[in-house]
Each structure stands twice: as C-alpha cells, then as structure tokens.
Amino acid sequence: SKLTSLGHLEMTWRSRVHFHPLLVRVLHKSRLRYYGKPEKKLDMPYQAYFEVADGSGMMSMVLWNSLCPEWYNSMKVGTVLLLEQYAIKTSYPFKTQPTPGDSQMKRFATIEISLNVRDPPSKISIIPEEMVKPEWGLPEVKYRFITRSELDDLPNNHSCDVIGLVTFVGRAERARKKEHGEDFWLYRWVHAIDGTSDQPFILELFATSQPDVFEHIHPMTYLVCTQMRVVRDLTENSSSTIYLTTSNESQIFITGWHKGQPYTKDTKVKNFIQWTKTQREADQMKKTVIGGYYPFPRPPDNFLKY
C-alpha cells in the first residue's frame, strides 16, 4: 500500500482527514497511565505514550483506553508497527520527553499520532523482525549505556542506561504521591556492580508497568535499566550522594528477559558480559544482601546538621 512518512505528515496534516499508512519502529515506551475518576464513566481509562520513528525522524504516539490492555505488552522497544486509520492531534505540551539514544535524530514535537478504538478505529499490525526490510530505512534502537566509573562525572538529571550484577535488593517501600492523597508510588533500592569501580550503582527503581520484572529482582541477576536519571546532592558534600532513579520511560530487564532485546548488541553490554565470565559466582554470592531497612540518602551524623 502507499505509505507516508512522519516528516510528510507534519507538513500536510492540517489539509487532510485521512492519512496513508505509516511504518515505524518503537524507540521508547512510557509506563501505563490510569486516569480514571469516580465521576467519569469510562470503561478503561488508560493511556500510554510511545516514541516512534522512521527514516525522517521521531514522533510521539498515544495508545488510548481499551487498546492499552490489548496492545501495550506487545509493543516493545524495537517493535516495528504498521499503522492505519490513525488520527493526528496537536501534541500535549506537558508530557515527559525521553532522551533519544541518537542525538542527531529529528524530533517532530508539534503533533502526535493518536490510536483509538473508534473515530477512526485504528488498525495496528506488528511486523516480525525477520520480515523487516533494510530499504524501509527504519532507524535502529540506540542506547546511552554508562559504566559505574563514568557515573561520578555526570551532571544532575543526565539520562543514561545501565547494566550490572545485582548485589543488594531492598524491600518494596511506598511513598505518597501527594502529601494528603490516597495514592502511593511503590519503589525499591537496588545495588548493582559492573566491575569498573569499587562502588555499586545505587538504583531507586519505581514500579513501572512491568510488575513481573519488578517483583523478581534478586541478587546475582543481570539487571538492565534504561532511561535512568542521575540524582546528585548539589550541596557542599556532593560527592557523598549520587544515585540513579527511574523516569517515565524507564524499562527494566532481568535474567530471563534479555533474549532478543536490542541492547544485547551494545558494546558496553558485551563488555559487561565478558567481565562476568571472569568472576566466580561463589565469591559474589558472599557479598549479596536482600531486604531490610535501607535509609538513603543517609541522614547527617548529628541532630544539629539534621
């Protein structure tokens, strides 16, 4: 069928009602958002953002309502989609923006693709990777992996991806989203090492839309976290506190989930795997810890500073 491109869509969308099909690759995926309110009678008030790209650039795509339970888990980072009968809307200005792995990629920020059950009923097809042709010119998924030795030089809020061997997993903790609200964020602290430093990565992992992974992080698993943000204490003793926290687009993978993921081709991931082959499992097992209370960032030594 006749295809269009994201770049062409941005130039012509105001003058059309019907659009030609699109062929795109998913580069980023947000957590699933529930926006239900007691007074609104919506069956499935869900929404999820994806960043999709073709040879012309990258654009946001929004999956709405009952399409979320049907498609969210199948649309992975790296998945190629054929989209038909979609709508184009002006983009929502306050959404979070993931940091693209390819800094040269053009971003179309004025409009977004909207996929709905009706008006119009969107048609989505997943193209298996072995059927994807090079001549389609779809970009590869690129990452920004860092090693632990590089972390200390990175600025606050810098976006990066990490891989490490888990040495500590804290219990799941809750924090209120709003001071007097009923909603909570669920998170846990994790330490992971990669052999490039004596210090581990300290990771604050919020429960994303991957409960099957979040609940099964345990010592000695290979952990990959994408789209993490650097958090550093910007006061005088800044060297003491530096950790990574999840963003809205973070994805988490543990041993058993790595097969076929695009990051397996990344050089730093391959280097990490080489390092793990030089380690004795029994030696690392002795250093692992699970559960317990983990106060972090640590409170000051005395009450006057507190």
UniProtKB/TrEMBL annotation:
Pfam families named among the record's database cross-references: RADX (PF17659)
Gene3D superfamilies the UniProt entry points to: Nucleic acid-binding proteins (2.40.50.140)
- Superkingdom, natural source: Eukaryota
Q: What GO MF terms are annotated?
A: single-stranded DNA binding
PANTHER family tied to this protein: RPA-RELATED PROTEIN RADX (PTHR14944)
Record protein name field: RADX protein
Identify the gene encoding this protein. Radx_0
